[in-house]
Specification:
By secondary structure, the protein is an alpha+beta fold. It is built from eleven helices and nine strands.
């Protein structure tokens, strides 16, 4: 497959890189993580003014009507800057699911305000000891025109500042669906929990929270919305990691070209060249798997195998590549004021969001087993 960018996609990638380079530097990044919002509101709104937050919003709502691939380019640019922004949560876990699955009324209500950066969205994918939203235990019981919801979600990014949280639930006696939760509703409580990067994450508890049944994403409880939300979140995380690893590779290669030992650049030593080549191979593999998965999702493939390949690569191989880059930087790599630290922390958070290596290997194994069963 040829995943070369077309003119529109190339323009999107260049524009996102330009906006982020202008709006963020190391000092402002550190300051944003420690702010009340937990992200740079100035940079976020600058992305909105550039039209980069509404790429997937339908044109009848003022957006560009584009899709997964174009959104992934923005997320990759955010990853390249380790930018403190709610881009993954809002775009991959909010805008794309609502655009692809929401009713016309839900899209009209939720999507127009995205363009300006005035609204942030997120999704509650994980529960204690449960990494797969399809296996969620959070329950919803029908009570007339309402659903009464109880349960606990963990590691919910930007929950406190979100306008809506996309909430996978098990509807008692009626399948599974995704509810559009107002985080200020009665019965919702949240506690901020630590993350490697400092980005805001929360444990969200729901105690008999009453949500109108009309807030069920797409109006369905057949499990389709939960599965699609999961796929889009994984694709977005892989795109973010793709950008972070590419930037780490560039940073390390530049260090090796300019740092000398025994009067020679580090890059000229054979052992060093072999290690940076392994990082390059890892980066290319992640990029290819992520590009293929995003293209397939955008083209409407229901369950792209490449998505679980990319997710496994992110959780297993990318941390190893990051360790190698730390090693090649020497003591500089562990300095929290040096960009290497931020990239590594972002990748750790993304791997945890996807459930870790063992969970992703299980998912990949199920794909392989299913493919073999289909061929027998």
């Amino acid at each position: 497959m040829d995943f070369s960018l077309d003119d529109t996609q190339r323009s999107i990638a260049e524009l996102a890189a330009g906006v982020l380079a202008r709006e963020l530097d190391a000092d402002r990044t550190a300051e944003a993580y420690g702010s009340e919002l937990g992200y740079s509101d100035t940079a976020w709104k600058a992305l909105g003014q550039a039209g980069l937050l509404s790429l997937a919003v339908p044109d009848w709502l003022g957006g560009e009507g584009l899709g997964v691939m174009e959104t992934a380019l923005v997320l990759s640019a955010v990853g390249r800057h380790a930018a403190p922004l709610p881009a993954l949560a809002t775009l991959a876990m909010g805008v794309l699911p609502v655009t692809r699955l929401g009713t016309e009324e839900q899209r009209a209500e939720l999507l127009p305000e995205v363009a300006s950066g005035a609204r942030v969205y997120t999704a509650a994918l994980r529960e204690p000891s449960i990494a797969d939203p399809v296996a969620c235990r959070t329950s919803a019981t029908r009570n007339g025109a309402e659903l009464v919801v109880s349960g606990t979600k963990v590691g919910v990014p930007h929950a406190e500042s979100a306008h809506r949280v996309l909430l996978p639930v098990r509807i008692v006696g009626d399948g599974r669906g995704v509810l559009l939760l107002d985080p200020t509703a009665d019965g919702v409580s949240m506690v901020r929990t630590p993350s490697s990067s400092g980005a805001p994450e929360f444990t969200v508890r729901l105690d008999d929270v009453r949500i109108p049944a009309s807030e069920l994403l797409g109006g369905g409880s057949d499990g389709v919305a939960v599965a699609e939300l999961s796929r889009l979140a994984v694709a977005g995380a892989c795109a973010s990691a793709d950008g972070a690893l590419a930037a780490t590779l560039e940073l390390t290669a530049e260090h090796l070209r300019t740092r000398e030992q025994f009067g020679k650049p580090l890059a000229t030593f054979q052992a060093v060249a072999q290690q940076i080549a392994e990082v390059y191979s890892c980066a290319r593999a992640l990029h290819l798997a992520t590009s293929s998965a995003c293209w397939r999702l955008g083209a409407g493939h229901e369950d792209p195998d490449d998505l679980n390949v990319a997710a496994y690569w992110l959780t297993e191989e990318v941390p190893v590549a990051m360790h190698t880059c730390h090693h090649l930087h020497g003591g500089i790599g562990v300095d929290i004021s040096y960009p290497m630290h931020r990239y590594y922390a972002v990748v750790k958070d993304l791997g945890r969001l996807l459930g870790g290596t063992e969970h992703r290997l299980d998912r990949l194994g199920l794909d392989v087993a299913g493919a073999e069963a289909g061929q027998s």
